[in-house]
Amino acid sequence: MAKSKFRFNPETLQYEKIETTFKRAIGVLVSYIVMIVMVGFAFMFTWLHFFPSTREKQLIDENKMLRSQYKTLNGRLSNMEKVMNDLADKDNNIYRMVFESEPIPDAIRNGGFGGVNRYVEIEAIPNMEIVVKTNQRMDILMKKIYIQSLSFDTIVDLAKNKQEMLQHIPGIQPLKTYKYVSGYGTRMHPIYKTLRTHSGIDLVAPSGTKIYATGDGVVKTADFERGYGKTVVIDHGYKYQSMYAHCSELLVHKGQKVKRGEVIALVGNTGVSTGSHLHYEIIKNGQKVNPINYFLNDLSANEFEEIRQISIQPNQSFD
């Protein structure tokens, strides 16, 4: 066996063992191997991070597509929630008030969504927040739809017992064809050029266009009214009245009974008016309300929504 060799180190004042060339080579080789392994792992990590496999690319694309679909779904849910809120508003403030029924409290319409977490298993999966949120919104919407369905069942039962009342309350459009221009609310006055309360709606139509009674009732006024020109006011009973102004000709007289859909006057431009049109108002309990909400019987849901959107535009009235 070869004897170990030593050398004196003048700096440490000690004898140090001299490694053989073979051992030094082994140490260098091991160092290189370790370095190569580390570089290999770094390369693999970089490659996998920046250059995913075909399967990983497929999963990434599928994930992007699912997120896009969920985004579209959430957009549709937002539209459905808006429609549902509009239905709830009409139910409480129109349908139920018409039949003198108490509105459904918000605590009932929006209640019952707490309690046991139904999504605890989904939440445990990474990157599932959008799935959980969408499912929660759908559950809430389904609950509101169910409550609204029950409410409509109640409204139908009330309506069956009040057919005569329904026939009297204004429920159709006063003109069959028109160009809708100005809605209910604050509008710019066409003559005085100041913002004023517009207590009805203006429906533009050619002079001589037929005007129809929007509900059964008795003619309260058929005369020339200051500002309104030739005007018809119908008392429908049940605390409702309707007014038709700026007519060119009146076809009914005070005290006359009229039926819904009966021609009562012709469109004109009398009184304070800047063009041929009908100014139409509904008065409930002595207060002027938005007539658009009573265009119920002769419009589809889409037609009603289109007119409602036009009615809220901040434009100028015709009177």
What keywords describe this structure?
319 residues; alpha+beta; 10-stranded antiparallel sheet; two-stranded antiparallel ribbon; 14 strands; elongated
Could you characterize the architecture of this molecule?
Helix 2 packs parallel to helix 5 (129-160). This protein is of the alpha+beta class. Strand 1 and strand 2 form a beta hairpin. The radius of gyration is 39 Å and the shape is elongated. The mean pLDDT is 77. The termini are far apart. The strands form 3 sheets. Strands 3, 6, 7, 8, 9, 10, 11, 12, 13 and 14 form a 10-stranded antiparallel β-sheet that branches. It has a two-stranded antiparallel ribbon with strand order 1-2. It is built from 7 helices and 14 strands. The longest helix is centred in the first third of the chain and has 45 residues, at 54-98. The chain has helices at residues 21-50, 54-98, 106-109, 120-123, 129-160, 163-168, 301-311, and strands spanning 6-9, 14-17, 179-182, 185-188, 195-198, 201-204, 210-212, 217-225, 229-237, 240-250, 257-258, 263-267, 277-284, 287-289.
| Rounded average pLDDT | 77
What structural class should be given to the helix and strand makeup?
A: alpha+beta
Whole-angstrom Rg:
39 Å
Q: What's the overall geometry? A: elongated
Taking the sheet with the most strands, its summary is: 10 strands, antiparallel
End-to-end C-alpha gap:
121 Å
Strand content: 15-25%
Number of helices: 7
Number of β-strand runs: 14
